[in-house]
Amino acid sequence: MIEIGSKFKTEIGELLIQHFLGKGKSGYSYLSEVNNEFVILKLMHDEKSPYYHFASDKLSVEINAYNKLFDIGINLPKLLYHNLEKQFLIKEFIEGKTGAEMIAENKICEKIISQIFEMSAAAKNAGYNLDFFPTNFIIKKDKLYYIDYEINPYSEEWNLENWGIFYWANSKGFKEFLKTGNAVSINRNLEKGIPFKIPFQEQVKEWIELYTNN
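RESULT FIELD:
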């Protein structure tokens, strides 16, 4: 990890590390400033994930995913620079609230739900699933951005309709999750990352009927 307030030298300039944003299964993310602009610095770590296997080095996986996401038209932050040797990337900073924050505040509108279904359809048509967990999305002026450079081969089990959308319906659970960091309020199976479904089936059914072309 990098100390807040320190500087990180790159070929596009010296980054001032402003704030630690969090740790994911592939790396640590920091809000940083370079050339009077905010950017996101992501440093890959070498920790293994108990529920996800990386086919090659983590940065190469993310760069490959970024290119595919860009090609299929998913709204996402621009990749500004990457260094395979030092295992880091720099991407555009998109100011807004995460999907998780908006869900916790009960501010998810139909316009946002329609956009996540549009992203899901575009990814499915290309043979992929996105990671639909709400912290992987930023909402800015009612526009949805997928900020995680991750794709997986399409499967019914882990698609939006059977997995991810149930998180977006659980406002009370996400309010507790953001307060405590404990996923027990959003997952009925913590080890496998399976969300609570039964309380939200009617809402999810309504969204699926409205926003899919089945």
